[in-house]
Amino acid sequence: MSTKLYVGSLPYSTTEQQLSELFAQYGTVQSAKVITDRYTGQSRGFGFVEMATGEEAQKAIAALNGSSMGGRTLVVNEARPQEKRAYGGGGGGGDRDRW
């Protein structure tokens, strides 16, 4: 069963190809994704890598967590499940007629 890893503190110039190649040293990479800002397209400095097995994921964590990439110290651990987000967010409300 595949294991998803969180990779934090990435250099902002990191590409998904570079991320995949880095983790491929420790096993089969099923996917690599650098998270970008939806408006600017710039990297947000973190990403996710899905390794083929839990054993390969643990090898990658042991080898890469705390290692240096582009002058930054990487944070690598198992990804937590994505939290559910509440919908909405306009900030206003139904009382607009009051003003």
Question: How big a fraction of the residues is strand?
Answer: 25-35%
Please state the second-level CATH architecture of the domain at 3-71: 2-Layer Sandwich
Order of helices and strands: EHEEHEEE
Name of the CATH superfamily of the domain at 3-71: RRM (RNA recognition motif) domain
Structural class: alpha+beta
Show unreliable segments.
none
Can you give a write-up of this model?
The protein is of the alpha+beta class and 99 residues long. 20% of the residues lie in helices and 31% in strands. A 4-stranded antiparallel β-sheet has the order 2-3-1-6. A two-stranded antiparallel sheet has the order 4-5. The protein is globular and about 35 Å long. The protein starts with a strand and ends in a 21-residue tail after the last strand. The mean pLDDT is 91.
How does the SSE layout of this entry go?
Blueprint: E1 3-8, H1 16-24, E2 29-36, E3 43-51, H2 54-64, E4 68-69, E5 72-73, E6 75-78
Briefly characterize the structure.
By secondary structure, the chain is α+β, with helices and mostly antiparallel strands. It has helices at 16-24, 54-64; strands spanning 3-8, 29-36, 43-51, 68-69, 72-73, 75-78. The chain has a domain at 3-71: 2-Layer Sandwich (Alpha-Beta Plaits).
Main attributes?
20% helix, alpha+beta, 99 residues, 31% strand, Alpha-Beta Plaits, 6 strands, globular, four-stranded antiparallel β-sheet, single chain
